[in-house]
UniProtKB/TrEMBL annotation:
Keywords assigned: Membrane, Transmembrane, Transmembrane helix
Main location group: membrane
Bilayer topology: Multi-pass membrane protein
Localization: Membrane
Family stated for the protein in its record: Belongs to the unc-93 family.
Transmembrane regions: 52-75, 163-182, 319-336
Protein name as it appears in the record: Unc-93
PANTHER family from the UniProt entry: PROTEIN UNC-93 HOMOLOG A, UNC-93 RELATED
Taxon lineage: Eukaryota, Metazoa, Ecdysozoa, Arthropoda, Chelicerata
């Protein structure tokens, strides 16, 4: 798809790259500047090319939907969900919780950072200096690193905990903001490095803030599994009985736990379960609908804010806003982790 986008969006279908002065790109880029009006790299491709590219993307999307409809197994309906009005009320009530308020800046940043990369970085750095046709290759780097991070950060959290992964994501984003300020805006390596590290950071926010939690009928699923083991005459160890707590992580000395240590073992399992769930699932158990509705709401607010000032603010101001919101979000996250630590040590 990047190759198709490249060939369709090159000026006149040529493979020649048009160089633009770095003084009007990158940190100096202002959408309303008169200098940008004469920047041929930002010229809109012919309508026929835009329509052909949009049609190609639409066909791929429809093919993906068709593949899902024909390949996925049927899942029985979950318990009755609240009505739209009830969910709206629950979402508003959720804002009274201190933890929800502390999570708002980081949730808004999740929308801001995605909108910046898609709308501002690709315009101010990639398209401005190298042409619109180069955007596809840079976004491939972002998507590949995002996918890689999403697949690996789960196991990383199991090994080192959630805090180091969050700190790594924040430091990665801040480092790339500094590179965008100080680095040359018209070199390919900068575009690829920023896109790749930004993708890893986005993987942290998407998987660790808004990750999956256990399905509501997980007890029935595990109970069916245990009954199947019993019907087959299999001997069940203590590990099987605690599948509902965590499926793939147990202490090395689990076999030595006896009934006399039941309460201590239960507390350890409960602590592990909270440690490895996504943040929203950990903080708001039993309130999944309202919690994740708030996540989507405030992430969308981040998108709205970023795209609303995208055409009026210069790149340096946008980076300052991103850094400020990320810093505020990490302070809120730190306060949440501190409260959880104190709660765990006193219980």
């Amino acid at each position: 798809m990047a190759y198709i986008s490249d060939m369709m969006s090159r000026p006149g279908g040529s493979s020649q790259s048009i160089n633009t002065s770095a003084s009007i790109c990158g940190i100096e880029f202002c959408p309303l500047s008169e200098n940008q009006e004469s920047n041929v790299n930002l010229a809109r491709p012919a309508n026929s090319k835009v329509q052909l590219l949009a049609g190609t993307y639409t066909a791929c999307a429809l093919a993906a939907v068709l593949l899902l409809l024909t390949s996925l197994d049927y899942l029985p309906p979950r318990r009755q969900s609240p009505s739209s009005f009830q969910l709206l009320v629950e979402t508003a009530r959720q804002l009274r919780l201190p933890d929800q308020l502390l999570l708002l800046p980081l949730t808004v940043f999740s929308g801001l950072e995605q909108a910046f990369l898609v709308g501002d970085f690709t315009q101010a750095y990639v398209a401005c200096s190298r042409g619109v046709h180069s955007v596809g290759y840079v976004m491939i780097c972002f998507g590949a690193c995002d996918a890689l991070g999403s697949a690996t950060f789960g196991s990383a959290v199991r090994r080192v905990g959630r805090i180091p992964v969050f700190v790594l994501g924040a430091l990665g984003n801040l480092a790339m903001m500094a590179l965008l300020v100080a680095g040359p805006p018209d070199v390919l390596w900068l575009h690829l490095v920023v896109a790749g590290v930004w993708g890893l950071g986005d993987a942290v926010w998407q998987t660790q803030i808004n990750g999956s939690v256990k399905v509501e009928n997980y007890r029935d699923i595990v109970n069916d599994l245990l009954l199947s083991y019993k019907a087959l005459g299999c001997n069940m160890s203590l590990k099987i009985h605690f599948l509902h707590s965590h499926l793939d992580f147990f202490p090395d000395n689990l076999g030595a736990v006896s009934d006399e240590h039941g309460e201590r073992f239960h507390q350890a399992i409960s602590s592990m379960e909270k440690r490895y769930q996504a943040l929203y699932g950990t903080l708001f158990p039993g309130k999944d609908e309202a919690a994740f509705a708030n996540y989507r709401l405030w992430e969308s607010v981040g998108f709205i804010i970023a795209f609303s000032y995208s055409t009026s603010l210069c790149t340096d101001i946008k980076l300052m806003i991103l850094a400020a919101v990320l810093t505020l979000g990490m302070l809120g996250y730190g306060a949440i982790e501190l409260r959880l630590h104190r709660k765990a040590t006193t219980s």
